[in-house]
Amino acid sequence: MRFLIDAEQRAFTASLDAMLTAADTPAVIREWSRGEHTSGRALWSRVAQAGVFALAVPEAYEGLGLRPVELTLAFVELGRHAVPGPLAETVAAAVLLAGLDDQGPAKRLLPALASGESLATLAIGPYALDADVTEVRLSLSTPELRLAPPPSSPPSPSLDPARRLFPATPHQGELLATDPPSLSSALQLARLTTAAQALGVGLALLDRTVAHVKQRTQFGAPIGSFQAVKHRLADARIALEFARPLLLGAALTMTEEDIAAAKVTACEAAYATARTALQLHGAIGYTAEYDLSLWLTKARALRTAWGTPDECRTTVLLSGDRRW
Fold first, then answer.
1. For residue 3, what pLDDT band results from cuts at 50, 70 and 90?
2. In this structure, what DSSP letter does residue 160 have?
3. pTM for this predicted structure
4. Which of 72, 142, 263, 277 has the maximal Cβ count within 10 Å?
5. Are strands 136-141 and 120-123 parallel, antiparallel or unpaired?
């Protein structure tokens, strides 16, 4: 199969890239990590104005209808620029709300998610990402889906400081549904968009590392001219480019096994690229003050978000068993 994005999709991603390039996202990320959300909310509004969150909201609720391929392309760019916030959680929450039997919560909450006026988080485990800044806090404690209250505890330490994890509050707040029928679709979209973010993070790390090895010299020559360095960068490029068609293919099929395969491939490629970037940057790569660290920590955190590598591999292997 030969899959190419069309001119409209290319223009969409190019406009997102241009807008985010001008946004000075490293400063936004650092402020977000300190719990200061003014610049992050402003950036969120610009992303929403570009139509990103509307791609997960039905037209009946002021969205554009669910478009997984366009969402995937957008999230690659969001990952490339390391945009902070509950990105995957917001689009997953939109799909979850849109599929409820009772349309009341969707009518009340979805238009603001599509416009960027509201942010959402979705907790199905012990933590809720960025619960202090979100207006829509969904908490699933089987079988109940609830609209949770604001957090009453400080965030827990996180590998990625920009991913602020608050203790979830199961069995609290307004009951929205029992055994929500759209839960599986929402979780798959969260996994898919997390994989897309990881691919974008990996691409950014590779670009930054290529630029660095062209400038850093050793023995009177740029280290990028050394064969061993070229091989490491080539391996990273191949891994990332191999992940891209799997990701886009999963966005087309939206099957559990294809999404799991894309998630593990994209996240492992991004993580391997992060290790290469750290090594080739030398001592400066370890410092929190250096912007590279903002992408390094995100690559590690996204690797286990919405499905660890082992969980995703298990899903793929079990799907193969079912086919036989």
1. low
2. S
3. 0.96
4. 263
5. parallel
